[in-house]
Amino acid sequence: MGSQIVSLVVNDQRREFIARPGTSLLSALRESLGLMAAKRGCGQGTCGTCTVLVDDRPVMSCLVAVETIEGASVRTLEGVARGGELDEVQSAFVDGFATQCGFCTAGMIMSAEALLERDPDPSREDVVEAISGNVCRCTGYASIVAAILDAARRRRDAASSGGDAPAVPAGSEAADGAGVR
């Protein structure tokens, strides 16, 4: 069986490319579309570095044959920032020092985006469960969980004020997750 044209909506843009059957979504994103945020880690779906959203659900893109999601909507880290501005999750990761080497960061952020889109007020346990498929070997997870809880608060504050919520300085009570359920 030869190559075929695959059509996806990637970061809100219709994209078509040629792929061989069995080409992973990760390979298509990186090699055909030049989107490099999702990383190849284990290649077996256990580390989460390749996490992207397909139809708003987090998936390990190394495990998805791209032809099986023809026509789907795919969002990568490159599609999260709007108008050159970091969104709340990205900002909270930066402000809360939730990255070290950065290898897991794109996958962590995409898992967090999916969580906050379905649950704007998650508990600490909800966050831990949402990122349970994402491995970080550097941070110990505490700063990542706190950043996601902070991002949730920022989004709720922005929604209630009708605009952007002010950033909470890293190390403050809200940024470190204290007092957040």
TrEMBL record:
Residues 159-181 are annotated as: Disordered. Pfam families: Fer2, Fer2_2. Residues 4-80 form the 2Fe-2S ferredoxin-type domain. Keywords: 2Fe-2S, Iron, Iron-sulfur, Metal-binding, Oxidoreductase. PROSITE patterns: 2FE2S_FER_1, 2FE2S_FER_2. The keyword Oxidoreductase applies. InterPro entries: 2Fe-2S-bd (IPR002888), 2Fe-2S-bd_dom_sf (IPR036884), 2Fe-2S_ferredoxin-like_sf (IPR036010), 2Fe-2S_ferredoxin-type (IPR001041), 2Fe2S_fd_BS (IPR006058), Beta-grasp_dom_sf (IPR012675), Diverse_Oxidoreductases (IPR051452). SUPFAM superfamilies: 2Fe-2S ferredoxin-like (SSF54292), CO dehydrogenase ISP C-domain like (SSF47741). This is (2Fe-2S)-binding protein.
